[in-house]
Amino acid sequence: MSSSSLSNPPTLALRNGLKHPVIGFGTYKVGVIPASASSAVASGGPSSVERTAEECVADALDVGYRFIECAQFYANESEVGKAIAKSGVDRKDLFICSKVWTTTIEQGPQAIEEQLMKTLADLGTDYVDLYLIHWPVPGKHVEAYKTLEKLADSGKIKGIGVSNYAWEDYVELKENGVKNLPLVNQIEINPFLYRKNTISKFAEEGVVLQSYRSLRDGKAFDDPTVVRIAESHNRSAAQILGRWCVQKGFVYIPKSVKKERMVENSEVFDFELSEAEMAELDSLTTPKAIETFASLYRKCVNRDTSKDGTLDGVKMTITED
């Protein structure tokens, strides 16, 4: 895929008419490792980073990425903004998504509005194309979502979405009078965590699925099935995982701090996987993976809030698969 076609990729139509690029550049752990990220917690502190977020995003924009995926939690939006400002890329040619973190969601509407203004200032823009609730904080996420609905009226948010929502969290929004239901739900999707039932339910509602960990952080590049399929197409394992994602109709959000990998990850539009290959990849999700997902969901919805480490308010029964 050439740089020119990456800067004008296929799009998915959102319910409100927005055209969402099917590929974007993720900025989690790019330049900064958030203090409560799992890798930082495991090592007792933030890990070292190879390059700044400004350098990496500058490379991504130079390669041709135009959808940039950001978040308050990532702690690098000011660096992302510097890269955008220096890139010379017109704002109208960019699609920017950000997410509000659990701590701010817990603090309430005023804190959410203040964080949105900080995100806009850091990114150097008057609006974001999408603004998401990062986690469905128990007892707080519905109010937070309704706050975003009000903020969207100002034009500072073009579309509202959610992240890490179980089907039951979405139903909770519907049952509590939310008028403009989420345009997207950003969840982990890859052949090793392919939750068909949940994905089908959201698709039936017209919710576009953004896939994070599309490449599974590189941890599946040596999987025998992935390797065999990659060899048959003369492609890399990353390209097979990326192709599976876009061929399924999900938004694909790879990330890398290396420019050559940014290019490699984007080269997924000039070949197709067969039905048999797709079926093989679909079958890689194990019951253990579903179990791990459910445990992580219960752990993370209260993450960094005053209820961190507890199951206070957490939905114990959700659609897991």
List the helices and strands and how they pair.
Layout: H1 3-6, E1 11-13, E2 19-21, E3 25-26, H2 38-43, H3 53-63, E4 67-69, H4 77-87, E5 95-100, H5 102-107, H6 109-123, E6 130-133, H7 141-152, E7 160-163, H8 167-175, E8 184-188, H9 196-204, E9 208-212, H10 224-233, H11 237-247, E10 251-252, H12 259-266, H13 275-282, H14 287-300
Parallel strand pairs: 3-4, 4-5, 5-6, 6-7, 7-8, 8-9, 9-10
Antiparallel strand pairs: 1-2
Helix pairs in contact: 3-4, 4-6, 10-11
- The tally of strands reads 10
Q: How large is the share of residues in beta strands? A: 5-15%
Rg calc: 19 Å
Helix content: 40-55%
Order of helices and strands: HEEEHHEHEHHEHEHEHEHHEHHH
- Please report the number of helical segments: 14
Low-confidence stretches: 39-43
Mean pLDDT: 94
- The shape is globular
> Between the first and last Cα atoms, what is the distance in angstroms?
34 Å
Which structural category fits the helices and strands? alpha/beta
Largest sheet: spatial strand order: 3-4-5-6-7-8-9-10
Query: What's the story with the biggest beta sheet?
Result: 8 strands, parallel
Structure explained in plain terms:
This protein is α/β, with parallel strands linked by helices and 321 residues long. 42% of the residues lie in helices and 12% in strands. The strands form 2 sheets. It has an 8-stranded parallel beta sheet. It has a two-stranded antiparallel sheet with strand order 1-2. α4 packs parallel to α6. 43% of the residues are buried. About 2% of the residues have low confidence.
